[in-house]
Specification:
By secondary structure, the chain is mostly helical. Helices cover about 35% and strands about 5% of the residues. The protein is built from three helices and two strands; from the N terminus they run E-H-E-H-H. It has a two-stranded parallel ribbon. Strand 1, helix 1 and strand 2 form a beta-alpha-beta unit. Helix 1 crosses helix 2. The longest helix has 14 residues.
Amino acid sequence: MWNITGYDWHATSAEFIEQKVSPKVRGGDVVLLHDGGHKTFGADRSKTVAAVDRLLARYNGKYEFRTIPEMMKLSPRHPA
């Protein structure tokens, strides 16, 4: 379902997340980042939010950003 993870559940900084993601980015990738904690609800995701801002700025104009539902509509369907 995803092919790049930012390891944001134990990140020490936004830069850490960016360094995990950036070397692997190619067109069509799905990057896994979290909007909540897997150990506790209400976990601080400020580093993830900051990393997303940095990644969007870095790749704006180079790639188009899509949601998963948008990507699913664009992908050719394979027979089951």
